[in-house]
Amino acid sequence: MNPIEYLKESRDELKKVRWPTRATTLQLSLIVIVSVAIATSLFGVIDYGLSELFKVLLERSL
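and the corresponding structure tokens:
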């Protein structure tokens, strides 16, 4: 397959795609952003808690 034919077929395939609406894109983007924020907060709290726990444990062992 030559490059020109490939590009034409790719363009034809892209025309067949059912693209999401703007509202759907915004809704799904918001879900992703909120999910990432929640996960980041959760991991941050766990990291902080474990750090403090290890500090206490290390101080007791010295």
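(Above: one complete record from the training split.) The chain has one domain: 18-61.
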